[in-house]
Specification:
Keywords: Signal
Order of helices and strands: HEEEHEEEEE
Protein name: DUF6646 family protein
InterPro entries: DUF6646 (IPR046588)
Oligomer: single chain
Helix content: 10-25%
Number of strands: 8
Pfam families: DUF6646
């Protein structure tokens, strides 16, 4: 896993200067779709998100995740669909152009409101060609709906790391 992350980081650095003509975030009307892997302490799965630009540096969107591989807990049956599934509404501040990054790179802190918690996220994406790039994102709960969560109630209600591909649907 460390080798994958290191390789992606090196690709990210290499392409940021070479492809500055590609926009990672253009502003109002910008539409980005991301799909990738969701990695958590007790499981791994898939994640998709769709963000729509509502201003020069702001976007709203949704995110859906489903855990495929879940580590078992002692004495507890397999998790059901509701334990594995989560959907969130998102708000992002797209800061790439604001902090002077090349136009093909964007970083975005944000807030999300989901079925399991109210949380935050910090992410980044880089586009290599028109319409295609990579993203990475870290998510964390700020306020859990069930502070006494036990067993599978922790799924989608803890720190998670997402990594995958990003598509510009406006191109």
């Amino acid at each position: 896993m460390k080798r994958i992350i290191t390789s992606l980081f090196l690709l990210f650095i290499g392409y940021t200067q070479a492809n500055a003509q590609i926009d990672a975030y253009k502003g109002k009307g910008d539409l980005r779709y991301q799909v990738g892997a969701n990695l958590q302490k007790w499981g791994t799965g898939i994640v998709t998100s769709l963000d729509y630009g509502i201003g020069e540096s702001f976007s709203i969107g949704e995110q859906t995740s489903y855990l495929l591989g879940v580590k078992s807990f002692a004495g507890i049956d397999k998790p059901g669909f509701g334990d594995r599934f989560d959907v969130k509404a998102r708000f992002n501040a797209n800061l790439g152009s604001f902090i002077g990054l090349p136009s093909n790179v964007d970083v975005y802190p944000g807030l999300n409101l989901g079925l399991k918690n109210f949380g935050g996220h910090v992410g980044g994406r880089v586009f290599f060609e028109k319409g295609f790039g990579l993203f990475t994102e870290a998510q964390f709960p700020i306020a859990k709906y069930n502070s006494d969560a036990i067993g599978y109630e922790h799924l989608n209600n803890q720190f998670s790391f997402n990594i995958g591909v990003a598509f510009d649907l406006g191109k």
